[in-house]
Amino acid sequence: MWIKKLSLILLVLSCITTACKRSLENKDKAIRIGTKKIDKLPYYNTADFTPSWLPTDDELKMFHKIPNFKFKNQLGKEITNKDLRGYIYVANFFFTTCPSICVKLTNNISKLQEEYFEDDEIKFISHTVFPSHDTVEILQKYGERNDINPEKWYLVTGKEEEIYNLAREAYFADETYKQTHDKNGFIHTENLILIDKNGHIRGVYKGTLPEEIERIQRHIEILKREYSNG
């Protein structure tokens, strides 16, 4: 009787071992497949962020790009989209007196700035959504308090209407506006937007979350490989 019980136990243990082995093999396979899936980043052409994978060159010519803009940075220097042409960059919207999500955003972008401090391919741009308060002088003090390198990370201000239009129509950053279409609403978003060297949107991230900052780093590296491979 005990022999039968022992045989049954051994059979169960064998099944468990086999199942665990298969589970690990499947997991490894899934990881490999997952890695393969993000060898390239998608393009985003619309405010609903529906990904477009591997559009043709002709299709890409018609794809959404960040349009021309002109603002002043924390040093009073004029910044246009030409200053970001040929760079991979991360954009966001904030205001200096924000006590909540903007603090986390600035802290997390600071980590990215540190990571890519000596990487000439990468830049950052933060647009104030409270330009009546956030003057060049205020932005300069804010940048100094947060150890922001003005050559690497632009804090920009300008006309409110232009900033808000850019946030809503170019970067698709204002999620509330997508639902209400209320142009009088205040923009308060945690989104970080990843832009490639040609001005295309290639990713959107919740910039207050540490895991999203890790994800944007992985995606930046994918974009860098995309350009290094031609």
UniProtKB/TrEMBL annotation:
InterPro entries: SCO1/SenC (IPR003782), Thioredoxin-like_sf (IPR036249), Thioredoxin_domain (IPR013766). This is SCO family protein. The lineage of its organism: Bacteria, Pseudomonadati, Bacteroidota, Flavobacteriia, Flavobacteriales. Cu cation binds at residues 98, 102, 188. GO terms for molecular function: metal ion binding. Belongs to the SCO1/2 family. PROSITE patterns: PROKAR_LIPOPROTEIN, THIOREDOXIN_2. It comes from Aquimarina algicola. Keywords: Copper, Disulfide bond, Metal-binding, Signal. CDD domains: SCO. Residues 1-21 form the signal peptide. It comes from the Bacteria. Disulfide bonds join 98-102. It holds the Pfam family SCO1-SenC. Residues 60-225 form the Thioredoxin domain.
